[in-house]
Every structure is written in structure tokens, then in C-alpha cells.
Amino acid sequence: MPRTRIVALALALPVLLAGCGRPTGDFGRAEPSFLHDRVMPAAGDLVAEWDRREVVSDFNRTDRETTLRDRSWALVRAPHVRDWFGETLVEFERTRIVPPVDHAFDPKGYYNHLRRDPFVSSETRWNRVVADMRADTGLIGLFWSEARRVREDDTLRLRALDERRGGAPAELSDAYARIDENARVVDWVWRAMRLRVAAYRDAIDRMMVETPSQRRYEAEIAWGELRDAITRAEAGMPPAPRRVAGGQSPSRYTRRDTIQEKVPQK
Questions:
Q1: Percent of residues, the chain, with pLDDT higher than 90
Q2: Handedness of CA 84, 87, 93, 97 (dihedral sign)
Q3: Which of 26, 76, 110, 224 could link 199 by a cystine bridge, Cβ 3.0 to 4.6 Å?
Q4: Residue 24 phi, psi (nearest 5)
Q5: Are the C-beta atoms of 20 and 88 separated by less than 8 Å?
Q6: Interatomic CA distance for residues 196 and 191, integer angstroms
Q7: What is the mean pLDDT of residues 105-120?
Q8: How many CB atoms sit inside 10 A of residue 224's CB?
Q9: How far apart are CA 253 and CA 115, in angstroms?
Q10: Are 188 and 76 in contact (CB under 8 A)?
């Protein structure tokens, strides 16, 4: 079957079947779903490999790699910000059916959605922002701890290959592809946190104009704690092992960017 037809079928099936974002249960945890756990990822791998020429690994996942992806979901698609952008679009990026599109999300979308919510009191809206920031702060350390463990496992993976004099070509290719896939997960979460910090900053500043409140002091503290939690979590993150050459952007951890350098502060 021609490559273009394979790609078209891979795209069409999940688009027709999905209709909505990934199903979630309590606390925003993803619920098991054959469509979202098997069908869409398989279609996404086809599109990524055959259409975008990205590396795709055929390795089984380690328990840590599975946990990393589960914890990343709560940060790239937090339940308290589910209406910033289409959940289906985020799910398509997670399953690699579409290339990374999160860089186009507008930080102003958070408050645009929040101000349309018919809260009984303006103070309730302030409460919501503070609660959202604290919820994110509580998730960050858990994710980055797992990211460090996965990064260490990737180093062990390459060391094992070296001890076996490189292994078979297919094995080597899968190893590099899995390292790249793990790095993509970490990069996506970091971009999501950049977006979140900027979005909360925008919300606090706009609310002080629209509905001024003494709660601003508490909101500023929560915002600072979120930003600091991200900085602390990233500290000591080991550099990514050798990455496969390709068109994708280099990992955030191969550059010297920081959350403070990227997000305007006021």
C-alpha cells in the first residue's frame, strides 16, 4: 500500500472515532481506553514515522517510562484548565497524530475562559486562580523526580549497548528512538509549565484591573511558589544522552534556557 494511503488511513480512523479528548477520572487521571491507549498511539506512530520521518521505537516501555507519561498528562492537560484549548488537539499531540502544536497556545486563553465562567463572586474567581496554581505546584516535583529516573535509565541503556559492542542495528535504532521519545515527553511538560506560568501572570494582572482584590497578595505568593517549584525541579536534571540527528528541535535540557529567562515577570 502506498505510504500516503497508509498515512491517510492512520489519520482518518482516530479522527472519526475519537470525537473528544482522552477520558479522565478522579483528579484528572487518564482512564483506560482501547481507542486512546492502543488505536490512536499506533496510528500516531505510523504518521510520525512514515509521514514526518520521526524516529519511533518498537521497545516495550519500562515501568518508569509508563509512570512518566501518566504524570505528564496531568501537567500538559490539567483538569482545571481543560477549556483553554481543545482536548482533542492535545490528545492528538500526545499520540503523535499531529506534530507538536502546543507552542501556538495563547497564555491569555486561561483568563479568557475564566472570565466567562459565571462565578457568583469575583472573589471566587481569585480563589480559583490561587487553587489552580497550587494544584500545579503539587504535581511538578513528582513529575521531575520520575523524569530524572528515566534519564538515568536512558544512560544505562546506552551503556548496555556499548558493553555489547553496539548491538544489532535495529536494537540500536530502537534505543535511540526511545531516548528521543522520553526527551520529547519532558520537553512538552516544560513547555506546558512555561505556558502555565505566563497564563497565571496574565490572569493576575488582568484581574487586578477588572476585579481588584486584596487576594492579589496570596495570588502573588502562589505564583512565585509555582515558578520556584519549576526551577527547583529542573535543578540537577542530567543532560539527555546522545540524541538522534533529525529535524526536531534540540531538547530543552541541551540548552541553557530557564523558566525565569523565558517568562516575563511583573
A1: 41
A2: negative
A3: 110
A4: -130, 155
A5: yes
A6: 9
A7: 85
A8: 12
A9: 35
A10: yes
Range 199-217 average pLDDT: 96
3-class DSSP state for residue 24?
strand
User: What is the pLDDT at residue 79?
Assistant: 62
Summarize pLDDT for 53-104 with one digit per residue, the tens: 899 999 999 999 999 998 998 888 876 665 555 677 778 888 888 888 888 7
Model pLDDT for residues 100-109, shown as the tens digit of each residue: 888 878 889 8
Cα(265)–Cα(196) distance, rounded to whole angstroms? 13
Q: Which residue has the higher pLDDT, 117 or 31?
A: 117
- 95 three-state secondary structure: coil
134 forms beta bridges with none
CA torsion 122→126→127→131, rounded to 10°? Answer: 150
DSSP secondary structure letter of residue 100: -
- Average pLDDT of the chain to the nearest whole number: 80
Helix (H, G, I), strand (E, B) or coil at 30: strand
Instruction: Report which residue type is found at 157.
Output: R
Q: Which of 115, 122, 101, 133 is nearest to 198 (CA)?
A: 133
- φ, ψ of residue 160 to 5 degrees: the values are -65, -35
